[in-house]
């Protein structure tokens, strides 16, 4: 257990705290949930940076890091969909969560074929993650009233959903020769 792995575990442990803070009946609860989500998002960047810089990458970290990211984002999206209950948030949330399921399954299947590198994380995914995280920080910090900030959060989430679809199409196109191959007898 090294520092990058501890940061990843911390990110998972922060998820129930985000949920608890989000539902507290206080005026500051949204801001507190957003602050903890922000800390978790920063640990996502920091654990990867430290693992590379200190050469402390491990199989456990390689497994848990993307799981922690997906859990954190999915939980935040579910909280927000329930709270905002509108198409502007629900549709991008469904696209983002659905894409994560499709791409995770695709990566697992490609790994079984020994072609995992063809569906590795791209720079497009980094832009998607940045837009998504900023959108979630903004939306978690604000009550579900249409303000400039909430509108900006919706816009960034829609951008993240568009980038999500674009990256999924790229992954599917990279995997298409394997998906379209006829089985040899």
UniProtKB/TrEMBL annotation:
Lineage summary: Bacteria, Pseudomonadati, Pseudomonadota, Gammaproteobacteria, Pseudomonadales
Q: Where is this protein found?
A: Cell membrane
* Gene3D superfamilies documented for this protein: 1.20.120.1760
Select a single GO molecular function from the record's annotations and give it: CDP-diacylglycerol-glycerol-3-phosphate 3-phosphatidyltransferase activity
Q: Name one GO cellular component term.
A: plasma membrane
Q: Which GO terms describe its biological process?
A: glycerophospholipid biosynthetic process
**Database matches in PANTHER family:** CDP-DIACYLGLYCEROL--GLYCEROL-3-PHOSPHATE 3-PHOSPHATIDYLTRANSFERASE 1, CHLOROPLASTIC (PTHR14269:SF62), CDP-DIACYLGLYCEROL--GLYCEROL-3-PHOSPHATE 3-PHOSPHATIDYLTRANSFERASE-RELATED (PTHR14269)
Q: What is this protein called?
A: CDP-diacylglycerol--glycerol-3-phosphate 3-phosphatidyltransferase
């Amino acid at each position: 257990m090294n520092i990058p792995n501890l940061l990843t575990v911390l990110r998972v442990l922060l998820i129930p705290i985000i949920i608890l803070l989000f539902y507290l009946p206080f005026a500051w609860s949204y801001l507190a949930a957003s602050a903890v989500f922000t800390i978790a998002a920063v640990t996502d960047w920091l654990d990867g940076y430290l693992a590379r810089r200190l050469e402390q990458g491990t199989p456990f970290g390689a497994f848990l890091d993307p799981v922690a990211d997906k859990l954190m984002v999915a939980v935040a999206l579910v909280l927000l969909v329930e709270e905002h209950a509108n198409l502007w948030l629900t549709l991008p949330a469904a696209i983002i969560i659905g894409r994560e399921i499709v791409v995770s399954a695709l990566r697992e299947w490609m790994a079984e074929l020994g072609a995992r590198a063809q569906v590795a994380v791209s720079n497009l995914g980094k832009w998607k993650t940045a837009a998504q995280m900023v959108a979630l920080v903004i939306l978690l910090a604000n009550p579900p009233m249409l303000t400039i900030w909430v509108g900006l959060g919706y816009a960034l989430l829609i951008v993240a959903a568009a980038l999500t679809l674009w990256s999924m199409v790229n992954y599917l196109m990279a995997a298409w020769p394997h998906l379209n191959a006829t089985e040899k007898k």
